[in-house]
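Example 3.2
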Amino acid sequence: MNAEPATRSVPPFRPPHFRLFVLRGRLAACLTLAAAASLLSVPLLALLLGGFGALVAFGCWLLWGATWPLLAISLGSVAAVLACYAAVCLLSVLLVPLPAPEGIRLSPTDAPELFRLIASMSRVLAAGRIDHVWVTPDINASVLQRPRRGFFGRIETHLLIGLPLAHSVTRAQLMAVLAHEFSHLALQRKGFGKYGALLRAWWLRVLDRIGDVFPVLGARADRWLHRFYCNMARLARIEEFEADAFATKLVDADLLGGTLIEVSLKGQFLSRDYWPRVLAQSKVRAKPLVRPYRDLGLGMAAGFMRASADDALSGDEPRPLHPNTRERLRALRASPCPPLSGEQTSAARHYLAPLLLTLAWVFDRAWWQGVRPDWQLTYSDACGKHLRKQAGRRRDGGT
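Structure, written as tokens:
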């Protein structure tokens, strides 16, 4: 395959579910207006609380100021302080910036061919500028848009590519993954849509914060906003279908469907076989013999057994915010078959070959720091059980 396949001409895009995607635009606009109005209501409610505290303090002085001035001042001060404290707590729920992307940021000199592919595909799909490219330890790819300074500044676009994902797919399959992610930018994250998505995400984080600061109010808000949550989940699912449909403007639907199956199969292998085997070492070793990210490519090649498409679809669990593989294949009208094994070189070895050892070392070190306490506790328990078992055998043999 050509290193820059995205430069080929593409036919006009004719979405197969046009009415559904028109609904997506209207639903996104309605949810954005609701989120903006809700965010605006928080400082207004805080202002009302402060005014209520001042009004109570003034009322206490009018009622008892002439006869019991000390009592009036005390009660008014307590009411004002409580109201101001509640107002400040309410305002604090707004100070929840979206999390910044995590991982290892690449520069164009680190992976020039990957950056050329990204620039070419972004230009063809009119996805806009990709400001930063990150490698993450997850078997996933995503695009994030964040203000440069938390709440203010230019909106920057971040592309996140998981190292396990790059080990799981070929060059053509990675192009299909990127086509899907860039379709989100081209259709749903440009112009007003970009700011609307940030407002909706901000309001959801504010709701989570309200549940932490005001537990009773948070529980009631969850019941009041049940329809809003359902519509947000509905919007997320429609956006995935729309991105898949738009991605077929650049890649074949069967290639995209095969990529979905491949990623599903590899994800099941990692979660059900590879990582359990790595963690099982904690019962016999104080430190892992296998470095999971360094040996990921080898483990994928040696331990992964090709399964049928039906196995991949049957093992794909339903998700409320994201359509599963079977639903996406049905919407694409693609044949549910795994990709052919003609191309053996993974996207990681092709695009990230000079960086693989460095990336693996960083992720392995972070992983070990995270699992070390539980690992050592499991190893200590296993050693204690082994010693008690040996002691019991000696006692039984001695008697």
